[in-house]
Design the sequence.
């Protein structure tokens, strides 16, 4: 059917054709350009209302998109998230980390290209700055206490090592004491690796004392066993001489004089130093054998 020009004029715009569905999205409507903290002028320039003052933060020279403020709102949300993360982690940060992070945040909220309650966010940063100062003092006190504890622990290790060295060599259990020193060395390494660092002068002085104690222990042990070897060798020599005398008397038939001689040999044996347990037992067996022959 053919329509007249008047009829064509009355056809609704939505029915004009299907090609409209493939066209690019239209620019933002006037209502979309209204925002509590911003505005966009007729040229597409974006202004944020920051503490009652407008400040240009960007623009859309080719026309505003459907959500013209979304980009800048996301930037504000990112700033908020950064501040919140700092607030949440404040109790775990060192003074150095607090200062560095806070300086970055303060600079980031100074004049950001973001839309939101910027002054409210700055006030929040100022509030956390005050908390940060308190936390820094707490952290300094904790670090000081940790260093004092570390100093006490390492000093205890050193004093235990020195106490081992000061033992009477004749009463020292050398194997057990040597094992204790090895355990103290392992403890020192663990404290050094995991504990707070001491100042270099203090750490060097403590290590010097600990190392000196270990060196003295090794020297005392060598001296003790060297002297023990010499004493046992001398004891063996003395007792072998007594055995030789006992064996020389074993065939005597001068009963009275020889009995007296054996009693004198027994007294000298008792007064003689001891050899090693194994050697002493063997020497005694030889001495008694000669006496039994008599």
Sequence:
């Amino acid at each position: 059917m053919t329509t007249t020009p008047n009829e064509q004029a009355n056809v609704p715009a939505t029915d004009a054709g299907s090609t409209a569905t493939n066209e690019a999205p239209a620019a933002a409507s006037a209502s979309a350009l209204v925002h509590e903290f911003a505005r966009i002028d007729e040229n597409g320039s974006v202004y944020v209302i920051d503490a009652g003052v407008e400040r240009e933060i960007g623009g859309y020279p080719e026309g505003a998109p459907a959500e013209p403020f979304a980009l800048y709102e996301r930037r504000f949300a990112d700033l908020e998230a950064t501040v919140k993360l700092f607030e949440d982690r404040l109790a775990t940060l060192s003074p150095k980390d607090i200062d560095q992070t806070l300086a970055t945040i303060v600079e980031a909220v100074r004049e950001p290209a973001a839309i939101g309650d910027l002054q409210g966010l700055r006030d929040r940063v100022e509030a956390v700055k005050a908390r940060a100062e308190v936390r820094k003092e707490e952290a300094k006190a904790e670090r000081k206490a940790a260093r004092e504890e570390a100093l006490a622990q390492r000093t205890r290790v050193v004093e235990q090592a020195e106490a081992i060295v000061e033992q009477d060599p004749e009463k020292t259990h050398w194997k057990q004491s040597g094992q204790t020193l090895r355990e103290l060395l392992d403890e020192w390494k663990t404290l050094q690796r995991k504990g707070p660092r001491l100042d270099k002068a203090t750490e060097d002085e403590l290590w010097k004392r600990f190392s000196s104690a270990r060196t003295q222990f090794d020297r005392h042990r060598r001296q003790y066993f060297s002297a023990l070897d010499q004493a046992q060798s001398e004891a063996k020599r003395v007792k072998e001489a007594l055995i030789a005398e006992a064996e020389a008397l074993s065939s005597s038939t001068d009963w009275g004089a020889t009995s007296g001689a054996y009693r004198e040999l027994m007294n000298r044996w008792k007064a003689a130093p001891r050899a090693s347990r194994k050697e002493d037992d063997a020497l005694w067996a030889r001495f008694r054998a000669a006496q039994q022959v008599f």
